[in-house]
Amino acid sequence: MEFPYKTKLCNTESLQILHVGPHSELPFFLFSDVLDELVFYANDKNAFGLLVGNAFLDNAKREVTSGATEALDPTKTFDVDVPDFVEITAFKDIYPVKDALDYAGYLRKMRNFRDNETETLCLGAVCLTPKSTDLTLECLYLMRTYFDLPIQILLFVSADRKPPRAYQLNKKLDMVEIGLEIVTLKNEALSFDL
């Protein structure tokens, strides 16, 4: 896949990055305003939806050699297997179902659900529940069938103040829990307890 270069998010005077979950090789940044909206939906009913955003190569890792002026172009993309980081900036198509297989049936009817009118990517699915729930075998089927790219995850968000959890398929196609980097303003109230 082709990914553009971007400076990786980090703590600043006004911005903080909070890590939740186990550490993983590929950082997934989730913006707190997106998480707040997902918690709002989770409070109402069980549902699934699509995560969207983009994946990038880190500007800090860019190697610029003499004569390589095209590498300085921020609009230029580079073809690699796995990006350096992923930013989840939105969600769409929230569908009220309790089960991952029911959501798979919904996706089966949606042609081209991965395609967007914009340059954002489909970064996986989100499971919304009023109370925290566990990973099921049906979730594994959903991931293996529809979200098997290294940049795609299954995100669990509940309205009971539990931290969000994310899972991804590893190279053996097993579901493994990964960490999330929550991007929030300094001193902003969180929608979950640490």
Order of helices and strands: EEEHEEEHEHEEEE
Q: Terminal Cα separation, in Å?
A: 35 Å
**How many distinct helices?**
3
The largest sheet, given as strand count, sense and whether it forms a barrel, is: 11 strands, mixed
Radius of gyration from CA coordinates: 17 Å
Overall 3D geometry?
Answer: globular
Question: What's the rounded overall pLDDT mean?
Answer: 88
The residue fraction in helices comes out at 10-25%
Q: Provide the low-confidence segments as ranges.
A: none
Strand content: 35-45%
Number of strands: 11
Oligomeric form of this entry?
single chain
By secondary-structure content and strand pairing, the structural class works out as alpha/beta
Structural overview:
The protein is built from three helices and eleven strands, in the order βββαβββαβαββββ. By secondary structure, the chain is α/β, with parallel strands linked by helices. A hairpin with a 5-residue loop joins strand 9 and strand 10. Helix 2 packs parallel to helix 3. It is globular and about 45 Å long. It starts with a strand and ends in a 9-residue tail after the last strand. 30% of the residues are buried.
Topology, element by element:
Blueprint: E1 2-6, E2 15-20, E3 28-31, H1 32-44, E4 47-58, E5 77-79, E6 85-95, H2 100-109, E7 121-129, H3 137-146, E8 153-158, E9 165-169, E10 175-178, E11 180-185
Parallel strand pairs: 1-4, 3-6, 3-11, 7-8
Antiparallel strand pairs: 1-5, 2-11, 4-6, 4-7, 8-9, 9-10
Provide a concise account of the structure shown.
The protein is of the alpha/beta class. It is built from 3 helices and 11 strands; from the N terminus they run E-E-E-H-E-E-E-H-E-H-E-E-E-E.
